[in-house]
Amino acid sequence: MTQPVIIGSERSEAGLPAGIEVLRRGGSALDAVEAAMRRCEDNLADHYVGTGGLPNARGQVELDASVMLGSDQRFGAVGAVRGYPNPISIARAVLERLPQHCLLVGEGAELFAAENGFERAELLTDEARRIWREQLQQTATAEGDAMGRSVEGENTGAVDGDRRYRESALALVRRLAPHEGPWGTINIIALDASGELCVGVSTSGYPFKYPGRVGDSAVPGAGNWCDLRAGGAACTGRGELSMRGGTARTIVDLLARGENPAEACRLALAQAATLPDDYRAELRALALTPDGRHGGAAGQQGSVYAVMTADSTRPELHPRVVL
Q1: For a surface tag, which of 205, 233, 287, 293 has the fewest beta carbons within 10 Å of its beta carbon?
Q2: Where in the sequence numbering do the catalytic residues fall?
Q3: Residue 265: count of CB within 10 angstroms of its CB
Q4: How far apart are CA 9 and CA 40, in angstroms?
Q5: Is the pLDDT score of 53 beyond 70?
Q6: Structural domains in the chain?
Q7: Is residue 156 exposed (0-12), middle (13-18) or buried (19+ Cβ within 10 Å)?
Q8: Given a cut of 70, is residue 277 above it in pLDDT?
Q9: Is there a binding annotation on residue 215?
């Protein structure tokens, strides 16, 4: 019998105890990932996932999530979902109830959620709205009123507004993704007693993103990949880089070639770091193998990931290797 383990990125500590409890009772890796991630999505103090997540440029919270199983590589995901607080559960429903598809976005994902009995809720909290308005005001002050108006949505599609939005995007993400603190997408990977692996990813995405932007969290091979022959991997940070580099898939391929989890993550991030990107922000990754080995990598010192086993009383933090 395999010894159960569950790991997660920064801030997953809010959910890992719920996940390991599922595994202790003999539950599946998929059940554990969903239970743990729902706790994270419901954490109103976390502004990068679920209810309370930071909104897009128009002040609307749009959520992405995915789950993937290692045994048969089934994948379910949703992107740019509005009005539903637990996208991880909708992603699971796509995996289990809509086998002809892997990914639903926007209005279609919301229709599917409604048809499957998920309840709507307000996602934009007063705190997230306050942060959004403060950042817009800072941008407007620095760039002029035209920037503030266009980002807030009045002229988002206009040529000048779009140009100014793109020019200020880097400054916005740097203010909202500081290197000195944990931020970004949440990754959770679980290994159950039967030996099944599951990777789950959930996020509210790039702060103040262009409406409709879907990141790597919902894209197989980019932010999420799982193959029981080698392991599971997930990414957080600058999703456009992991989409271009196929970073999660690269990590699992490296595991299959015999690299240990930390080194596989480091090599994949180093590869992504060679891609040109004017909006570069840190990319992080973590991985778990079918025999329970785990590791992670990041571009900055001080980054950690959390681990719980059946014997754990609380999440234990492990350092990631640095590029």
Answers
A1: 293
A2: 185
A3: 33
A4: 11
A5: yes
A6: 5-121+181-322 (3.60.20.30)
A7: middle
A8: yes
A9: yes
